[in-house]
Amino acid sequence: MSEWIETLPQAARDYLEGRRLDEVECIIADLPGIARGKAVPASKFARQKYFHLPDSIFYQTITGDWGEAADEDEGFIERDMILYPDMATASAAPWTGDWTLQVIHDAYDRKGKPVECAPRNVLRRVVELYHKQGWQPVVAPEMEFYLVARNVDPAKDIEPMMGRSGRPAAARQAYSMTAVDEFGPVIDDIYDFAEAQGFEIDGITQEGGAGQLEINLRHGDPVRLADEVFFFKRLIREAALRHDCFATFMAKPIADEPGSAMHVHHSINDLESGKSIFSGPQGGETDAFFHFIGGMQTHLPSAIAVLAPYVNSYRRYVRDHAAPINLEWARDNRTTGIRVPLSGPESRRIENRLAGMDCNPYLGIAASLACGYLGLMEERWPSKQFKGDAYEGDGDIPRVLGQALDLFDGATALHDVLGPEFARVYSIVKRAEYEEFLQVISPWEREHLLMNV
């Protein structure tokens, strides 16, 4: 087994130096982005080349029920997939009681073809389409989340956590270092876990909500960055649990507080030269730069169902609450859905501010890149750059999940990029979740309708 360990990434080898590896968690992300898989003894993992899981893990809703997404001709027979490890993803699980590694696996069918509805395969498919055009997409995600008090009763409102001072986390303290210090012990563990896993954090800041933080990651390959967000969600939750609080990535966990986004910055490089296709020889903005924006404006409405995958997601799109309500674009303007940050020509990029932190990172990044890709291929031109406060304009994005799914179902061009089988399965599972939600009677309905209508 020592020979096998020598092939691991450096961070994993450093973590295990002088220690005996006990267990390996073989994992894959399902549609919500939950880690599914098996934990096996290290000695067994060293002998196995693959393992099996049923394809039905991609038909499961967030509540544990099943969308009727199996092949209509064959019925729900739960075929086994073949899952092969991507050893480049081998990473520590430093919160465990023994010495454990996590390894992300890729899903294939019995004919050796990638399983189309596996989220990591969906993102790979989109990246390969870019490669075929001679382009290398580069992304940089920003992760927003809340640290909240333990909540074991779904009937109770979510409340901010207690900080070091013994007072609840305060809102309206964006970029406050004092507010960050309130969560110091949790943040220390996040840094320690990230270092053990070999991840580089570009920065941690306090956001506008009570107990809301943001972590920025360095730009890079889309699949690798999606892997990191997938891993980060787990490590942040584990760090919070060590300090008697919860970390939540809900889009809108607390009423009257800002929602949590996964802003995605995009740039596209030429594969041969390594230079940005968004910047010309003299440093000016190219047609490709505008076509990418035009693709986002045209196709993002159909992709919202992927970027905002739950009924709660649409509570985030609230005027004047740090989330976009339309698809306007502008330079250095955080009220628009599509923002061009200040940068030099070599780092020119386009930020999608629509994705919620509750989306699956593989699918959210894939959908965002897919919209830009379609714009490049169709040579779409955007609307005129927006000037002023975009919150004063009209909303032009779906406001409920049902409407978003209707747009997604009709988006054949987007399906062709993401994969028709993925689009079919995703729609069925999300409609099953939406229909289940519609069966729930909310406290608002009981309070205002019970005796008044």
Briefly summarize what is shown.
With 453 residues, this protein is an alpha+beta fold. It folds into 2 domains: 3-115, Ubiquitin-like (UB roll); 125-447, Glutamine synthetase/guanido kinase, catalytic domain (Creatine Kinase, Chain A, domain 2, 2-Layer Sandwich), CATH 3.30.590. It is built from 13 helices and 14 strands.
Biggest pleated-sheet summary? 8 strands, mixed
Secondary structure class reads: alpha+beta
Mean pLDDT across all residues, rounded?
A: 91
The CATH architecture of the largest domain would be 2-Layer Sandwich
* Share of β-strand residues: 15-25%
**CATH evolutionary superfamily of the largest domain:** Glutamine synthetase/guanido kinase, catalytic domain
* Net shape: globular
Q: How many separate structural domains?
A: 2
Distance between the termini: 70 Å
Low-pLDDT runs of 5+ residues are none
Helical segment count: 13
For the secondary structure, the number of strands is: 14
Q: Briefly, what CATH class of the largest domain? A: Alpha Beta
Give the % helix. Answer: 25-40%
Series of secondary-structure elements, N-terminal to C-terminal = HHEEHEEEEHEHHEEHEEHEEEHHHHH
CATH topology of the largest domain: Creatine Kinase, Chain A, domain 2
Rg, alpha carbons: 22 Å
